[in-house]
Amino acid sequence: MTDSTSRRVTANLALTLDGRYNGPGGPGDLGAIVPYAVTDVGRDHLSRITDGATTALLGRRNAEGFLGYWPPVANDENADLRDRGYAKWLVDVEKVVLSTTLTEAPWERTRLVNAPVADVVAELKATGAGDILVNSSPSVIKALLAADLVDRLFLLVCPEIVGAGQRLFDDGLPASRWSLTRSETGERGEVAAVYDRAR
Questions:
Q1: CB 58 within 8 Å of CB 135
Q2: Contact 93, 51 (CB under 8 A)
Q3: Which phi-psi region, left, alpha or beta, contains residue 161 (left: φ > 0; alpha: ψ -120 to 50)?
Q4: Rounded to a whole number, what is the distance in angstroms from the first to the last CA of the chain?
Q5: What is the pTM of this model?
Q6: Is the model's pLDDT at 5 over the cut of 60?
Q7: Tens digit of pLDDT for each residue in 167-191?
Q8: Do residues 67 and 107 touch, judged by C-beta distance below 8 A?
Q9: CA separation (Å) from 120 to 98, 125, 126, 149, 170?
Q10: Residue 22's pLDDT band (boundaries 50, 70, 90)?
Q11: How far apart are CA 119 and CA 121, in angstroms?
Q12: Dmax of the chain from CA atoms?
């Protein structure tokens, strides 16, 4: 058992220039995100987010969406090797899914939890080792930012302004300072950035 400060909480999300993770069409409107996520910079960024991560913490919507997409990619010989690597990690890793409605785990190696995310993170930090990655689950990331529990942010910033849609950084978050630890710019203007919480 490790102490409660040895595990980092990391979070990954792609955003438009105006800070949105979807467009005006709702959660499925990713037209300003997907073209940049499949660039070399976007795929290299995806490869890095799992380094050191031993637990995936997901919201219900993302867990169900990922289940429909990623498992077949792990064994698809025609898929990009970086996509295959991420898919294999996701299939094999311990997954904790936050849900108030699911009664059966949608994946193998998955545990369902109906509890406040801050409590779940406290329990994970106290009982395991390695990073806890919240991957593309904005509702979970928002709750953790509000509680100042995110230690590292992986952001893919896409060079488009969509003008409407849901934002990651809502008004009312506690003030915090971050250090840029890595940045890479792609040919289409996308920026893959890693920020660490300065504490």
A1: yes
A2: no
A3: beta
A4: 24
A5: 0.92
A6: no
A7: 999 999 999 999 999 999 999 999 9
A8: yes
A9: 9, 9, 10, 11, 22
A10: very high
A11: 5
A12: 47
